[in-house]
């Protein structure tokens, strides 16, 4: 063909501008490329075709998925048509008759252009996943050590080189306004496309990868140490590509360079750097404004964390925004961290390649919050960085801070974590470990001689590595010490002039370095006419970040279909065949209503609700779209508005008019006979709540659940959005909220007693009472119990009464005089423990008093559990009259104190005294008690001291283990949080008053609503009591549940915009063409792809519903007399509707404070008997 050689010659003019090759070497390289000139194409739209793989999509036996096409604008339609025509001419798509259909989605690019994409999300969801692994970026970069020449190659339209399997072609079908088409080559956006293409590339280069070249999807880099070897390796790779049928694009290839961009990094003979274009993308990113953009920013910067010393500490303020339940608040610390991360990427250190023939030097330092590490090697007589690593301490790791040997544990954990992180470098090699914590040097150097089980376990793990430990002061370990101690305080100390400005200008086109692999969408197919490739190298956060930035023109990770306006029913935009009721939901169904001869309900629908038929019809005709639909069904009159006219034609087959009332046809599920259809009335807005009352709250419905209520409504009525209204109505029902639901026992995470903060025995006492029991001849009726939390030693005393005086007397005479004054005393909220006399007693002795929440005995669980054990032991010995229990009390207490306790690992007696008591059994058998002589008192005291010291250490460890066991048993506990001002129900235990004949079975368990006014602990909240404005109660979360509020339906958000009637139109008779004036209409306008406004509304406004700010102007959502809603700018409402605006603003100010919490009128009888004082104790 004429001019073909010239075209090839022009195409093969490789760019050697940045190459270090000499003229002769460039000539040899050009000659080599000339031998493969048939492989190079001038456009990405001329891909090759391989016969090594046919891509298939395995969906097992899943039925075909059919989706409707998305609507597009005229400009988007033109681009769509051009793209499809181009694909047809290239022979990569064809018209289809497939039962599968995925919609085309047109995406706006940052430069204002339009990208052709296909939404394959639903197809991907049913596809069997291919788990072929992607190579790790760090492994690829480490292999390039020692290389001096690099060449990168890019396969033209990589995916399009792979043909589709004949059996899977139909599954790739995509639908749009121009028809249905299917792919003949592997398209972008399919889930298994990335692993399939990577497998193909590795099979093509199976014996060359990792030695001659590296490949990541359609990017390939050939590396060598000298030019002759480089030519040989290039020929080997090009021959493999030719045999596979691939084509290359010369414009995107780089030949014989001493540094090249690859996978977002600059690869050089001396080390690696982040790509300037990727760094520029970070520098140009705007300040995060929500959780999504925070994740995108951190995902992007985390990709370069190997270059940033102290990354974990710097990013900590922003990382905290990702914690579940945290409010998004961008403060000064976040701003400083944001700017600091940008600044650190401007001048990153050059990381050297690891040399496994040389000894590694690992520097590790840990602070109270961060672990920092630096892996280094000596190159040319000076230390060079191989990699940085840092990590924030999270969760239980932060608990080590307050432990006695917590510093050693944190420092040791830092070494363990770092060696795990760098295990690929340190395994089976000798290295030097430097730490500034001298105590660890003997642990690792002299063997495991520590009593700390955690340190011993870690030392045993580290013993598998070959290293020497050296102590180095923190002042001489700036690179590692700085990583662990750098925090937001030091970041905030930087001045603004030292930091980079936030420049959000996007990078210019064409600035992408060749050889780089930017990650495109993994969910949506996109045309490869742009510079885009699948980015499996990055994790999901990195993909989201790069897609959100669109820094180099990649398509977004996912896109939702265009949403219809809130005022249009879900089924109005569907084809006529698709407008059917959903299948009946599972659940109990009531019997059908009796049928007449025509198969319909015997009574009229209006009679079912006890409504006036004429008023019902009148309210129906007040709704414009219902009025237009009735006019069409009765006389064939069509609306003048084009949009409404189309909707009426679509809805008409599913509606009918009977006796002047619009009815909806619905399909009932088959029961005794075949499935059948009935017609139910379309309920206008004023009657919706009436219908919901009869179907849920009426005595003949008896407050049944959501599924049963939906079944009743479905059989008797219809309106747009009825399922959502039913769900909200049932959820907000006050009667159901107070009378239904079990107590949420699993609410609230387990709280640990601070064992490590206890100074010793009797530093924390727990007190409780048992009784009343049978009064003994000695006048005793109750048992007062004291339990020592540290040693589980218990004291129990019989008393005549449980008043404060008895409690104080026993406390002083029997507890304080024998064991000393405790630091803290824990009890429930019994009157004898919280009286003024008791408080004065605590203050006099300096005892810190702790209280458990009302009706939550788990707080003082130690003594509560012992009470049951004590009663069980007494039960074994008391007489039939049960009047001698106080005689056996001291003896069963001795039995308990000398018995093994699981949480102690010993007896309470030994834990307190450091010795075992002499039991009667010891005297009966061989008299095994120790015989001490008077001159051996000093030795006895020494042994006793050692025994008590070791015993208390053992007790502390055993208590912590017991708490861990308990935590595992309660692993299913759920964390529940309330905010100040929340309205809640409170679970109240049933108590029948004197003279009342009420039973627990029929009593309401939940009372309220009450208001949360504060939080005492993780699981305890303060609740305000309406009858005691100056008092609050503390309630545990397992007695609280959220108050759903009261149901309201402020406006019909699903009613379509339609034709309006004039205010003076005749309301009698059906609507005809003559009744539809051209001067009254409703037109929906879309502004900026987001805003929706209405014009031409002639009905008067009756209420203001909501407010928003758009372009610095206030807009109000208004409800018209014909039940239409629209957003209107404030100036258009003044002065005519100024009073409505004033009423709305006043109500809005009231809602700004605490919500008005009034009891439901239907609960007045049930709540009238609730004693608010009972909640206080």
From TrEMBL:
Q: Name one GO molecular function term.
A: endonuclease activity
Compositional bias of type Acidic residues: which residue ranges?
578-599
Q: Report whether Nuclease shows up as a keyword of the record.
A: yes
Record-annotated Integrase catalytic domain positions: 757-916
For the Reverse transcriptase domain, which residue ranges apply? 88-267
Name its GO BP terms in alphabetical order: DNA integration
Tell me which SUPFAM superfamilies the record gives. DNA/RNA polymerases, Ribonuclease H-like
Q: Does the keyword Cell membrane apply?
A: no
Enumerate the UniProt keywords alphabetically. Answer: Endonuclease, Hydrolase, Nuclease, Nucleotidyltransferase, RNA-directed DNA polymerase, Transferase
Q: Which one Pfam family would you cite for this protein? A: RVT_1
* CDD domains per UniProt: RNase_HI_RT_Ty3, RT_LTR
Which stretches of sequence are listed as region Disordered? 500-535, 552-612
Q: What is this protein called?
A: Reverse transcriptase
Native organism is Phytophthora rubi
Supply the source organism's classification: Eukaryota, Sar, Stramenopiles, Oomycota, Peronosporomycetes
């Amino acid at each position: 063909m004429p001019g073909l050689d010239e075209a090839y010659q022009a195409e093969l003019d490789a760019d050697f501008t940045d190459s270090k090759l000499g003229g002769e070497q460039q000539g040899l390289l050009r000659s080599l490329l000339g031998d493969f000139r048939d492989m190079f194409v001038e456009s990405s739209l001329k891909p090759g075709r391989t016969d090594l793989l046919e891509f298939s999509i395995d969906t097992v036996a899943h039925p075909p998925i059919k989706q409707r096409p998305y609507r597009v604008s005229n400009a988007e339609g033109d681009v769509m048509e051009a793209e499809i025509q181009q694909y047809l001419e290239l022979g990569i798509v064809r018209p289809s008759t497939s039962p599968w259909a995925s919609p085309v989605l047109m995406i706006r690019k940052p430069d204002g252009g339009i990208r052709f994409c296909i939404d394959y999300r639903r197809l991907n969801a049913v596809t069997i996943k291919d788990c072929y692994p992607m190579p790790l970026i760090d492994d690829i970069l480490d292999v390039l050590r020692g290389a001096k020449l690099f060449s990168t190659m890019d396969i033209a339209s990589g995916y399009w080189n792979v043909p589709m399997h004949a059996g899977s072609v139909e599954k790739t079908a995509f639908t749009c306004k121009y028809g249905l088409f299917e792919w003949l080559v592997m398209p972008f956006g399919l889930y298994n496309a990335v692993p399939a293409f990577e497998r193909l590339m590795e099979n093509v280069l199976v014996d060359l990868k990792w030695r001659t070249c590296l490949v990541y999807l359609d990017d390939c880099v050939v590396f060598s140490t000298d030019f002759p070897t480089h030519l040989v390796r290039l020929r080997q790779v090009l021959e493999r590509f030719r045999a596979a049928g691939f084509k290359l694009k010369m414009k995107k290839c780089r030949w014989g360079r001493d540094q090249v961009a690859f996978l977002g990094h600059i690869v050089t003979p001396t080390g690696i750097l982040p790509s300037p274009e990727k760094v520029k993308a970070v520098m140009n990113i705007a300040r995060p404004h929500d959780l999504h953009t925070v994740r995108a920013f951190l995902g992007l910067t985390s990709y370069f964390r190997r270059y940033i010393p102290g990354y974990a500490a710097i990013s900590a303020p922003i990382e905290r925004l990702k914690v579940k339940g945290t409010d998004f608040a961008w403060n000064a610390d976040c701003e400083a961290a944001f700017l600091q991360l940008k600044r650190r990427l401007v001048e990153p250190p050059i990381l050297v390649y690891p040399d496994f023939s040389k000894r590694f030097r690992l520097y590790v330092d840990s602070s109270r919050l961060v672990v920092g590490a630096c892996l280094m090697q000596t190159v040319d007589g000076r230390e060079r960085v191989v990699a940085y690593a840092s990590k924030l301490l999270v969760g239980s790791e932060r608990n080590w801070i307050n432990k006695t040997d917590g510093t050693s544990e944190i420092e040791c954990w830092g070494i363990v974590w770092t060696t795990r992180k760098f295990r690929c470098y340190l395994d089976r090699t000798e290295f030097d470990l430097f730490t500034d914590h001298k105590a660890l040097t003997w642990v690792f150097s002299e063997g495991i001689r520590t009593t700390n089980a955690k340190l011993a376990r870690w030392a045993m793990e580290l013993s598998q590595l070959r290293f020497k430990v050296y102590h180095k002061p923190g002042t001489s370990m700036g690179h590692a010490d700085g990583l662990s101690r750098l925090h937001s305080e030091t970041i905030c100390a930087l001045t603004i002039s030292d930091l980079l400005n936030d420049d959000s200008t996007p990078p210019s086109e064409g600035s992408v370095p060749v050889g780089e692999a930017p990650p495109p969408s993994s969910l949506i197919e996109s045309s490869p006419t742009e510079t885009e490739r699948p980015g499996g190298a990055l994790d999901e956060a990195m993909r989201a970040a790069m897609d959100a930035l669109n820094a180099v023109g990649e398509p977004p990770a996912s896109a939702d279909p265009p949403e219809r306006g809130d005022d249009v029913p879900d089924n109005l935009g569907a084809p006529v065949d698709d407008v059917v009721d959903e299948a009946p939901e599972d659940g109990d169904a009531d019997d059908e209503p009796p049928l007449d001869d025509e198969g319909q309900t015997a009574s009229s629908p209006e009679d079912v609700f006890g409504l006036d038929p004429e008023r019902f019809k009148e309210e129906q005709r007040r709704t414009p779209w219902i009025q237009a639909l009735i006019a069409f069904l009765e006389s064939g009159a069509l609306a003048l508005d084009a949009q409404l006219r189309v909707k009426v034609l679509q809805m008409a087959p599913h509606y009918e008019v009977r006796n002047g009332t619009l009815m909806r046809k619905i399909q009932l599920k088959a029961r005794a006979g075949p499935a059948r259809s009935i017609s139910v009335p379309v309920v206008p807005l004023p009657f919706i709540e009436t219908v919901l009352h009869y179907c849920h709250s009426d005595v003949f419905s008896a407050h049944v659940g959501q599924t049963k209520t939906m079944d009743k409504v479905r059989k008797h009525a219809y309106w747009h959005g009825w399922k959502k209204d039913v769900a909200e109505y049932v959820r907000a029902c006050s009667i159901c909220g107070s009378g239904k639901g079990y107590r949420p026992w699993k609410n609230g995470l387990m709280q640990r007693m601070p064992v490590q903060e206890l100074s010793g025995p009797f530093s924390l006492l727990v007190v409780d009472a048992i009784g009343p029991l049978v009064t003994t001849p000695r006048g005793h009726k109750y048992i007062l119990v004291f339990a020592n939390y540290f040693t589980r030693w218990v004291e129990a005393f019989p008393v005549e009464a449980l008043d404060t005086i008895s409690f104080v007397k026993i406390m002083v005479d029997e507890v304080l005089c024998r064991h000393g004054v405790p630091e803290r005393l824990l009890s429930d909220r019994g009157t004898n423990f919280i009286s003024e006399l008791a408080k004065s007693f605590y203050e006099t002795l300096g005892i810190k008093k702790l209280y458990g929440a009302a009706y939550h005995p788990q707080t003082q669980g130690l003594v509560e559990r012992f009470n049951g054990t004590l009663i069980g032991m007494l039960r074994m010995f008391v007489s039939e009259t049960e009047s001698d229990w106080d005689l056996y009390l001291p003896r069963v207490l001795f039995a308990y104190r000398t018995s093994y306790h699981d949480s102690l690992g010993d007896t309470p007696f030994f834990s307190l005294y450091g010795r075992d008591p002499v039991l009667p059994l010891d005297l009966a058998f061989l008299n095994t008690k120790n015989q001490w002589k008077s001159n051996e008192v000093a030795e006895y005291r020494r042994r006793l001291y050692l025994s008590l010291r070791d015993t208390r250490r053992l007790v502390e460890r055993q208590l912590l283990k017991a708490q861990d066991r308990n935590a595992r048993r309660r692993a299913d506990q759920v964390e529940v949080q309330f905010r100040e001002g929340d309205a809640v129900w409170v679970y109240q235990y049933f108590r029948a008053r004197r003279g009342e004949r009420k039973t627990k079975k029929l009593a309401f368990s939940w009372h309220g609503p009450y208001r949360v006014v504060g939080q005492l602990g993780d699981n305890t909240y303060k609740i305000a009591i309406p009858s005691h404005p100056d008092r609050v109660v503390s309630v545990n979360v397992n007695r609280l549940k959220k108050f759903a509020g009261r149901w309201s339906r402020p406006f019909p958000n699903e009613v379509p915009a339609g034709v309006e009637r004039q205010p003076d139109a005749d309301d009698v008779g059906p609507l005809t063409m003559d009744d539809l004036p051209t001067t009254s209409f409703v037109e929906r306008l879309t502004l900026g792809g987001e805003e929706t406004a209405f014009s031409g509304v002639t009905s008067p406004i009756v209420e203001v519903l909501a407010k928003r700010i758009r372009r610095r102007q206030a807009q109000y959502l208004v409800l018209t007399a014909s039940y239409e809603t629209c957003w209107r700018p404030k100036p258009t409402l003044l002065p005519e509707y100024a009073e409505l605006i004033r009423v709305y603003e006043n109500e809005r100010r009231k809602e700004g404070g605490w919500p008005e919490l009034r009891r439901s009128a239907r609960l007045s009888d049930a709540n009238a008997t609730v004693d608010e004082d009972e909640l206080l104790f």
